[in-house]
Each structure stands twice: as structure tokens, then as C-alpha cells.
Specification:
This protein is of the alpha/beta class and 99 residues long. It has helices at 24-33, 52-66, 80-97, and strands spanning 2-5, 18-21, 39-42, 72-75. Strands 2-1-3-4 form a four-stranded parallel beta sheet. The chain is globular.
């Protein structure tokens, strides 16, 4: 399964492969109740005071508890600072797993 986190957009060519979550709370709930996706694509700004950073912080803690790497990830946000922040956080976790 693939996880798409974006409050507005849908994945291109969605053939049902993507589980679409519109908020960090929805993404957390989905992953907590299911398995880790093998891939995820994240938007940074999710409307009002919500961002994908909330989900990523939770997901990293979840992966630490499971002692696993993050799923394959990309960020499709139009917010350049948000892209750097999300990628830096996820890259740092992945790098820490390699030590």
C-alpha cells in the first residue's frame, strides 16, 4: 500500500494503489490501525494549523518502537521550506539507522 498525505490534491494516475489521507490525524490513525505503507508521498501544509511534520514525528517514534526503517518517502509540497524540513527529519532518522 502507498500513503498519500495531502489536504487537497490527489495522486496522478490513482488506480487505487494509494490510500489518501487529508490530515496528519487521519494518517496517524490509518498507519496505527494498519501496517506501514511501503511508500508515502507527503504534502507539508495540510490546512489551518496542521502539517505533515506532526505525522512524520509520530511515524518516526512508531518506527523506533518497531525497530524498522521508514517507508520509501518523497515530498510533493509546494512549500520549499517545508520540503527541506520534512526531508531533513526523515533523512536524519534513516541515517541514524545506518550507524
Amino acid at each position: 500500500m502507498r500513503l498519500w498525505l495531502d489536504d487537497i490534491r490527489n495522486p496522478q494516475n490513482n488506480t487505487g494503489e494509494w490510500v489518501i489521507c487529508r490530515s496528519s490525524v487521519e494518517a496517524i490513525k490509518f498507519v496505527a490501525e494498519n501496517e506501514l505503507p511501503f511508500q508515502m508521498s507527503l504534502d507539508h501544509d495540510l490546512g489551518e494549523n496542521d502539517t505533515a511534520m506532526i505525522f512524520v514525528h509520530w511515524l518516526i517514534e512508531h518506527c523506533i518502537d518497531l525497530d524498522v526503517d521508514l517507508p520509501y518517502y518523497c515530498v510533493h509540497s509546494a512549500n520549499p521550506v517545508g520540503v527541506v524540513n520534512l526531508m531533513s527529519l526523515m533523512d536524519a532518522y534513516q541515517k541514524s539507522r545506518r550507524k
